[in-house]
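Hi support team,

I've been running sequence recovery on a batch of backbones for a student project. Most finish fine, but this one hangs at about 90% for roughly twenty minutes before it completes. I'm not sure whether the input is malformed or the queue is just slow. I've pasted the C-alpha coordinates below so you can try to reproduce it. Let me know if you need the job ID as well.

Thanks,
M.K.
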Protein backbone atom coordinates (compact mmCIF):
# COMPACT_ATOMS: atom_id res chain seq x y z
CA UNK A 1 0.00 0.00 0.00
CA UNK A 2 2.88 2.31 0.66
CA UNK A 3 3.72 2.28 -3.00
CA UNK A 4 0.49 4.09 -3.94
CA UNK A 5 1.23 7.41 -2.26
CA UNK A 6 4.76 7.16 -3.55
CA UNK A 7 3.39 6.63 -7.04
CA UNK A 8 1.10 9.63 -6.72
CA UNK A 9 3.90 11.70 -5.31
CA UNK A 10 6.07 10.72 -8.25
CA UNK A 11 3.42 11.89 -10.69
CA UNK A 12 3.04 15.17 -8.84
CA UNK A 13 6.77 15.63 -8.78
CA UNK A 14 6.96 14.96 -12.48
CA UNK A 15 4.23 17.47 -13.17
CA UNK A 16 5.83 20.10 -10.97
CA UNK A 17 9.24 19.59 -12.54
CA UNK A 18 7.95 19.76 -16.12
CA UNK A 19 9.64 22.79 -17.64
CA UNK A 20 7.31 25.69 -18.25
CA UNK A 21 8.31 27.36 -21.42
CA UNK A 22 7.00 29.85 -23.89
CA UNK A 23 7.94 27.28 -26.51
CA UNK A 24 5.84 24.27 -25.52
CA UNK A 25 7.07 22.12 -28.39
CA UNK A 26 10.71 22.37 -27.43
CA UNK A 27 12.45 19.28 -26.19
CA UNK A 28 13.66 19.48 -22.58
CA UNK A 29 16.56 21.86 -21.98
CA UNK A 30 16.68 23.07 -25.56
CA UNK A 31 16.60 26.67 -24.41
CA UNK A 32 19.33 26.06 -21.88
CA UNK A 33 22.28 24.26 -23.39
CA UNK A 34 25.17 22.81 -21.51
CA UNK A 35 27.09 26.06 -21.15
CA UNK A 36 24.26 28.21 -19.82
CA UNK A 37 25.55 27.96 -16.21
CA UNK A 38 28.53 30.05 -17.35
CA UNK A 39 26.17 33.01 -17.52
CA UNK A 40 26.48 33.32 -13.76
CA UNK A 41 30.06 34.48 -14.27
CA UNK A 42 29.04 37.68 -16.04
CA UNK A 43 30.74 40.55 -14.27
CA UNK A 44 33.52 38.45 -12.76
CA UNK A 45 37.00 39.90 -12.96
CA UNK A 46 40.61 38.99 -12.16
CA UNK A 47 41.41 38.38 -8.51
CA UNK A 48 38.05 36.90 -7.63
CA UNK A 49 37.36 33.35 -6.49
CA UNK A 50 34.02 32.10 -7.77
CA UNK A 51 32.49 28.67 -7.31
CA UNK A 52 32.49 26.79 -10.61
CA UNK A 53 35.04 28.95 -12.38
CA UNK A 54 37.15 25.82 -12.83
CA UNK A 55 34.51 24.64 -15.26
CA UNK A 56 34.99 27.73 -17.37
CA UNK A 57 38.72 27.09 -17.39
CA UNK A 58 38.00 23.59 -18.62
CA UNK A 59 35.98 25.14 -21.44
CA UNK A 60 38.87 27.38 -22.43
CA UNK A 61 41.21 24.42 -22.19
CA UNK A 62 38.93 22.45 -24.49
CA UNK A 63 39.29 25.06 -27.23
CA UNK A 64 42.98 25.64 -26.73
CA UNK A 65 43.05 28.84 -24.67
CA UNK A 66 44.50 27.38 -21.46
CA UNK A 67 47.11 24.61 -21.32
CA UNK A 68 46.42 21.42 -19.41
CA UNK A 69 46.66 22.03 -15.65
CA UNK A 70 49.27 20.26 -13.55
CA UNK A 71 46.45 19.09 -11.28
CA UNK A 72 42.86 20.32 -11.27
CA UNK A 73 41.76 23.77 -12.32
CA UNK A 74 41.02 26.10 -9.40
CA UNK A 75 38.09 28.48 -9.03
CA UNK A 76 40.46 31.45 -8.93
CA UNK A 77 40.20 34.14 -11.60
CA UNK A 78 43.95 33.98 -12.14
CA UNK A 79 46.33 35.34 -14.77
CA UNK A 80 45.89 32.28 -16.98
CA UNK A 81 42.15 32.80 -17.17
CA UNK A 82 42.52 36.51 -17.81
CA UNK A 83 44.97 35.80 -20.62
CA UNK A 84 42.65 33.18 -22.11
CA UNK A 85 39.74 35.59 -22.06
CA UNK A 86 41.76 38.27 -23.79
CA UNK A 87 42.80 35.91 -26.55
CA UNK A 88 39.25 34.64 -26.92
CA UNK A 89 37.92 38.19 -27.10
CA UNK A 90 40.41 39.00 -29.83
CA UNK A 91 39.47 35.92 -31.83
CA UNK A 92 35.76 36.68 -31.60
CA UNK A 93 36.07 40.40 -32.36
CA UNK A 94 35.07 41.45 -28.85
CA UNK A 95 36.53 44.27 -26.79
CA UNK A 96 39.70 42.91 -25.21
CA UNK A 97 39.01 43.57 -21.54
CA UNK A 98 40.23 40.40 -19.82
CA UNK A 99 37.04 40.39 -17.79
CA UNK A 100 33.85 38.42 -18.21
CA UNK A 101 31.71 41.22 -19.54
CA UNK A 102 28.24 40.47 -20.86
CA UNK A 103 29.10 40.29 -24.54
CA UNK A 104 31.95 37.89 -23.83
CA UNK A 105 29.77 35.60 -21.74
CA UNK A 106 27.06 35.69 -24.39
CA UNK A 107 29.58 34.46 -26.94
CA UNK A 108 31.00 31.81 -24.63
CA UNK A 109 27.65 30.12 -24.05
CA UNK A 110 26.80 29.89 -27.71
CA UNK A 111 27.02 26.40 -29.17
CA UNK A 112 30.09 25.87 -31.25
CA UNK A 113 32.06 23.54 -33.45
CA UNK A 114 34.23 21.14 -31.52
CA UNK A 115 37.38 22.05 -33.44
CA UNK A 116 39.73 24.05 -31.21
CA UNK A 117 40.72 27.64 -31.99
CA UNK A 118 44.26 27.41 -30.60
CA UNK A 119 46.76 24.59 -30.64
CA UNK A 120 49.91 24.49 -28.55
CA UNK A 121 49.35 28.06 -27.50
CA UNK A 122 49.29 29.49 -31.02
CA UNK A 123 46.10 30.91 -32.38
CA UNK A 124 45.32 30.83 -36.04
CA UNK A 125 42.46 33.29 -35.68
CA UNK A 126 42.72 37.04 -34.98
CA UNK A 127 44.94 36.74 -31.95
CA UNK A 128 47.55 34.84 -33.93
CA UNK A 129 47.88 37.50 -36.61
CA UNK A 130 50.00 40.59 -36.66
CA UNK A 131 48.09 43.78 -36.01
CA UNK A 132 48.86 44.98 -39.50
CA UNK A 133 46.96 42.05 -41.00
CA UNK A 134 43.88 42.32 -38.81
CA UNK A 135 42.04 44.55 -41.19
CA UNK A 136 42.88 42.71 -44.37
CA UNK A 137 40.30 40.58 -46.14
CA UNK A 138 41.93 37.21 -45.66
CA UNK A 139 41.45 35.62 -42.26
CA UNK A 140 41.00 32.03 -43.35
CA UNK A 141 43.25 29.46 -41.75
CA UNK A 142 44.45 25.95 -42.40
CA UNK A 143 45.18 23.02 -40.15
CA UNK A 144 48.77 22.73 -38.96
CA UNK A 145 50.96 21.79 -41.88
CA UNK A 146 48.17 22.72 -44.28
CA UNK A 147 47.04 19.13 -44.93
CA UNK A 148 44.89 18.74 -48.02
CA UNK A 149 43.60 16.01 -50.28
CA UNK A 150 46.29 15.07 -52.81
CA UNK A 151 46.05 16.55 -56.27
CA UNK A 152 45.47 13.06 -57.65
CA UNK A 153 42.33 12.78 -55.54
CA UNK A 154 39.80 15.20 -56.95
CA UNK A 155 36.81 12.86 -56.90
CA UNK A 156 35.87 12.29 -53.28
CA UNK A 157 33.16 9.94 -52.06
CA UNK A 158 31.07 10.26 -48.92
CA UNK A 159 28.71 7.98 -47.02
CA UNK A 160 26.49 8.06 -43.96
CA UNK A 161 26.84 5.90 -40.88
CA UNK A 162 23.89 3.70 -40.02
CA UNK A 163 24.36 4.57 -36.33
CA UNK A 164 21.70 6.98 -35.04
CA UNK A 165 19.79 7.46 -38.27
CA UNK A 166 17.96 10.67 -37.42
CA UNK A 167 16.79 11.35 -40.95
CA UNK A 168 15.48 9.48 -43.93
CA UNK A 169 18.37 8.66 -46.21
CA UNK A 170 16.85 10.65 -49.06
CA UNK A 171 16.58 13.72 -46.85
CA UNK A 172 20.21 13.37 -45.81
CA UNK A 173 21.23 12.96 -49.43
CA UNK A 174 19.48 16.15 -50.45
CA UNK A 175 20.97 18.18 -47.59
CA UNK A 176 24.50 17.01 -48.16
CA UNK A 177 24.29 17.23 -51.93
CA UNK A 178 23.53 20.92 -51.48
CA UNK A 179 26.24 21.38 -48.84
CA UNK A 180 28.96 19.74 -50.91
CA UNK A 181 27.88 21.70 -53.98
CA UNK A 182 28.83 24.93 -52.20
CA UNK A 183 32.44 23.83 -52.18
CA UNK A 184 32.60 21.99 -55.50
CA UNK A 185 31.35 25.18 -57.17
CA UNK A 186 34.54 27.03 -56.27
CA UNK A 187 37.26 24.36 -56.37
CA UNK A 188 37.93 21.53 -58.83
CA UNK A 189 36.70 18.75 -56.55
CA UNK A 190 33.66 16.50 -56.91
CA UNK A 191 31.71 14.73 -54.17
CA UNK A 192 29.71 11.58 -54.79
CA UNK A 193 27.58 9.68 -52.30
CA UNK A 194 28.25 5.98 -51.89
CA UNK A 195 26.57 3.35 -49.75
CA UNK A 196 29.89 1.81 -48.68
CA UNK A 197 30.55 3.72 -45.46
CA UNK A 198 33.91 2.22 -44.57
CA UNK A 199 35.21 2.63 -48.09
CA UNK A 200 34.15 6.25 -48.45
CA UNK A 201 36.67 9.09 -48.30
CA UNK A 202 34.34 11.13 -46.10
CA UNK A 203 32.42 9.35 -43.34
CA UNK A 204 29.44 11.24 -41.93
CA UNK A 205 27.39 10.24 -38.92
CA UNK A 206 25.38 11.27 -35.87
CA UNK A 207 26.85 10.19 -32.56
CA UNK A 208 26.02 10.63 -28.89
CA UNK A 209 28.30 11.39 -25.97
CA UNK A 210 31.58 9.50 -25.93
CA UNK A 211 31.82 7.89 -29.34
CA UNK A 212 35.39 6.68 -29.30
CA UNK A 213 37.49 9.47 -30.81
CA UNK A 214 38.42 11.33 -27.63
CA UNK A 215 36.00 14.17 -28.38
CA UNK A 216 32.76 13.23 -26.61
CA UNK A 217 29.64 15.16 -27.49
CA UNK A 218 27.97 17.07 -24.68
CA UNK A 219 24.23 16.88 -25.24
CA UNK A 220 21.97 19.74 -26.29
CA UNK A 221 23.86 22.70 -27.77
CA UNK A 222 27.44 23.12 -26.54
CA UNK A 223 29.48 21.54 -29.31
CA UNK A 224 27.33 20.62 -32.30
CA UNK A 225 29.73 18.76 -34.56
CA UNK A 226 33.37 18.19 -35.36
CA UNK A 227 35.43 16.99 -38.28
CA UNK A 228 38.95 15.88 -38.93
CA UNK A 229 41.54 17.38 -41.21
CA UNK A 230 42.56 15.78 -44.53
CA UNK A 231 42.84 12.99 -45.26
CA UNK A 232 41.07 11.55 -42.23
CA UNK A 233 37.58 12.20 -43.54
CA UNK A 234 35.51 11.72 -40.36
CA UNK A 235 32.60 14.14 -39.84
CA UNK A 236 30.58 13.68 -36.66
CA UNK A 237 27.36 15.42 -35.63
CA UNK A 238 25.96 15.47 -32.10
CA UNK A 239 22.83 13.31 -32.20
CA UNK A 240 21.44 15.20 -29.19
CA UNK A 241 20.84 18.43 -31.10
CA UNK A 242 17.46 19.57 -32.32
CA UNK A 243 18.48 19.27 -35.96
CA UNK A 244 16.33 20.42 -38.83
CA UNK A 245 17.15 19.20 -42.30
CA UNK A 246 14.70 20.97 -44.56
CA UNK A 247 12.16 23.73 -44.44
CA UNK A 248 12.09 26.69 -42.11
CA UNK A 249 14.40 26.68 -39.11
CA UNK A 250 12.70 27.66 -35.88
CA UNK A 251 14.55 29.60 -33.20
CA UNK A 252 15.13 26.40 -31.26
CA UNK A 253 16.55 24.36 -34.10
CA UNK A 254 20.00 23.89 -35.57
CA UNK A 255 20.16 23.91 -39.34
CA UNK A 256 21.87 20.75 -40.51
CA UNK A 257 22.90 22.10 -43.89
CA UNK A 258 24.61 25.12 -42.33
CA UNK A 259 26.65 22.91 -40.02
CA UNK A 260 27.41 20.56 -42.90
CA UNK A 261 28.84 23.34 -45.06
CA UNK A 262 31.11 24.42 -42.18
CA UNK A 263 32.33 20.91 -41.36
CA UNK A 264 33.03 20.12 -45.01
CA UNK A 265 35.39 23.08 -44.88
CA UNK A 266 37.31 21.27 -42.15
CA UNK A 267 37.27 18.00 -44.09
CA UNK A 268 38.95 19.84 -46.95
CA UNK A 269 41.56 21.52 -44.75
CA UNK A 270 40.20 24.87 -43.58
CA UNK A 271 40.44 25.96 -39.96
CA UNK A 272 38.42 28.64 -38.21
CA UNK A 273 38.33 32.27 -39.20
CA UNK A 274 37.50 35.41 -37.24
CA UNK A 275 35.37 36.74 -40.10
CA UNK A 276 31.88 36.51 -38.64
CA UNK A 277 30.05 36.25 -41.96
CA UNK A 278 32.25 33.42 -43.15
CA UNK A 279 31.14 29.81 -43.13
CA UNK A 280 34.33 28.96 -41.22
CA UNK A 281 33.54 31.26 -38.29
CA UNK A 282 33.34 28.95 -35.26
CA UNK A 283 29.79 29.96 -34.34
CA UNK A 284 26.45 29.72 -36.05
CA UNK A 285 23.12 30.91 -34.76
CA UNK A 286 20.35 28.45 -34.12
CA UNK A 287 17.22 29.39 -35.93
CA UNK A 288 19.24 30.69 -38.84
CA UNK A 289 20.53 29.33 -42.09
CA UNK A 290 24.08 30.15 -43.12
CA UNK A 291 25.13 28.19 -46.16
CA UNK A 292 26.78 30.60 -48.56
CA UNK A 293 30.54 30.81 -48.83
CA UNK A 294 31.94 34.31 -48.54
CA UNK A 295 35.16 35.68 -50.00
CA UNK A 296 37.20 34.59 -46.98
CA UNK A 297 36.06 30.96 -47.35
CA UNK A 298 36.60 30.98 -51.10
CA UNK A 299 40.07 32.52 -50.96
CA UNK A 300 41.10 29.96 -48.36
CA UNK A 301 39.85 26.87 -50.14
CA UNK A 302 41.15 28.03 -53.52
CA UNK A 303 44.58 28.51 -52.01
CA UNK A 304 44.53 24.78 -51.24
CA UNK A 305 42.93 23.45 -54.42
CA UNK A 306 42.84 26.20 -56.99
CA UNK A 307 39.69 27.47 -58.63
CA UNK A 308 36.98 25.49 -60.34
CA UNK A 309 37.33 26.47 -64.03
CA UNK A 310 33.61 27.20 -64.09
CA UNK A 311 33.77 29.51 -61.09
CA UNK A 312 33.19 33.08 -62.13
CA UNK A 313 33.15 34.70 -58.74
CA UNK A 314 35.18 37.72 -57.86
CA UNK A 315 37.32 36.16 -55.15
CA UNK A 316 39.99 34.72 -57.42
CA UNK A 317 40.06 32.79 -60.64
CA UNK A 318 43.49 31.35 -60.50
CA UNK A 319 45.70 29.29 -58.29
CA UNK A 320 47.79 31.61 -56.13
CA UNK A 321 51.47 31.90 -56.70
CA UNK A 322 53.82 29.86 -54.58
CA UNK A 323 54.90 33.07 -52.92
CA UNK A 324 51.35 33.85 -51.87
CA UNK A 325 50.94 30.32 -50.65
CA UNK A 326 54.08 30.52 -48.54
CA UNK A 327 53.05 33.85 -47.11
CA UNK A 328 49.69 32.50 -46.14
CA UNK A 329 51.09 29.37 -44.61
CA UNK A 330 53.38 31.40 -42.45
CA UNK A 331 50.58 33.57 -41.19
CA UNK A 332 47.88 31.01 -40.71
CA UNK A 333 49.69 28.14 -39.09
CA UNK A 334 52.34 28.54 -36.48
CA UNK A 335 55.18 26.07 -36.06
CA UNK A 336 54.29 22.96 -34.15
CA UNK A 337 50.60 23.70 -34.31
CA UNK A 338 48.36 20.68 -33.93
CA UNK A 339 44.61 20.74 -33.90
CA UNK A 340 43.30 18.58 -31.14
CA UNK A 341 42.47 15.44 -32.99
CA UNK A 342 41.56 17.75 -35.79
CA UNK A 343 38.42 18.73 -33.98
CA UNK A 344 36.90 22.09 -33.23
CA UNK A 345 33.91 24.14 -34.45
CA UNK A 346 31.74 26.68 -32.78
CA UNK A 347 28.17 27.40 -33.50
CA UNK A 348 26.16 30.16 -31.95
CA UNK A 349 22.59 30.17 -30.73
CA UNK A 350 20.39 33.07 -31.55
CA UNK A 351 19.98 35.89 -29.10
CA UNK A 352 16.45 34.68 -28.58
CA UNK A 353 17.77 31.60 -26.87
CA UNK A 354 20.38 33.37 -24.78
ZN1 LIG B 1 33.70 12.43 -33.09
ZN1 LIG C 1 34.72 24.34 -37.09
Amino acid sequence: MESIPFFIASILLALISTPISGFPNLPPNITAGVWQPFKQFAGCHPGQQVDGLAGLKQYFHRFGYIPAPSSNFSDNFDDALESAIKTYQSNFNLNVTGTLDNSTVQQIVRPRCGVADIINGTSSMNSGKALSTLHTVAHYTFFPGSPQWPSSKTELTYAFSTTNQLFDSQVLSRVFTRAFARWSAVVPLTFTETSFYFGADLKIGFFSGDHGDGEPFDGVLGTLAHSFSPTDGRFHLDAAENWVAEGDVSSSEIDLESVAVHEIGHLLGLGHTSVEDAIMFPSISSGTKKVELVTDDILGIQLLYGSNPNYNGSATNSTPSSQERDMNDGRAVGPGLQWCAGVGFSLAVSVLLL
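--
Follow-up from support: It reproduced on our side and the slowdown came from queue contention, not your input. The CA atoms of residues 76 and 245 lie 43 Å apart. No action needed from you.
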